[in-house]
């Protein structure tokens, strides 16, 4: 298996700072906006962005975690049942702006499931998608992010590994799977 470093800790920090500045430009003080991190891996990025925004704006911002397990179109096609993650949305999203956050956008199917899952918490005024890595040319659905950390052109056989440990060793890798 071959690994290529896409973003190291320093560049990842700069990228998150830039994304936060773009969010502030778009949403001001976040009084009408909430953040939803997509389970399981989008919540780490959502936590990082949420913390940085609260520091910069010196205000509380609503943060929730959204599980899409039962809304996925492949839920009943699996051989073994999928274990659901916790959904934690302690606020109503009715008529509010929502920034949906995930680590990697690949086919768009997880985002579609998240849009369905969000409706249980109200009808948002507007939903925007923020992703750390946008895998270009891989969509199965017409879904595109509003805020992008890094665009990456990938092959179907490659995968993006996001290592967010919340500290000094955060890295993003492009992995080439070895052929058998």
UniProtKB/TrEMBL annotation:
Broadest EC class assigned to this enzyme: transferase
SUPFAM superfamilies xrefs: PRTase-like
Taxonomy, superkingdom: Bacteria
Single GO term (MF): uracil phosphoribosyltransferase activity
Ranges for domain Phosphoribosyltransferase: 6-150
E.C. number: 2.4.2.9
Protein name per Swiss-Prot or TrEMBL: Bifunctional pyr operon transcriptional regulator/uracil phosphoribosyltransferase PyrR
Species assigned in the record: Fulvivirga sediminis
């Amino acid at each position: 298996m071959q690994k290529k470093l896409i973003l190291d800790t320093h560049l990842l920090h700069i990228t998150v700072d830039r994304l936060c500045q773009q969010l502030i430009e778009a949403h001001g003080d976040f009084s009408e906006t909430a953040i939803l991190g997509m389970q399981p891996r989008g919540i780490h990025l959502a936590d990082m962005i949420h913390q940085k925004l609260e520091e910069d704006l010196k205000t509380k911002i609503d943060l929730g975690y959204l599980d899409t397990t039962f809304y996925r179109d492949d839920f009943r096609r699996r051989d073994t049942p999928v274990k659901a993650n916790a959904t934690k949305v302690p606020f109503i999203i009715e008529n509010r702006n929502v920034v949906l956050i995930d680590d990697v956008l690949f086919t768009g199917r997880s985002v579609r499931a998240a849009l369905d899952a969000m409706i249980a918490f109200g009808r948002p005024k507007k939903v925007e998608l923020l992703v750390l890595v946008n895998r270009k040319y891989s969509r199965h659905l017409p879904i595109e992010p509003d805020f992008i950390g890094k665009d990456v052109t990938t092959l179907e056989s490659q995968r993006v590994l996001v290592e967010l440990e919340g500290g000094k060793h955060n890295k993003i890798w492009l992995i080439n799977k070895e052929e058998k």
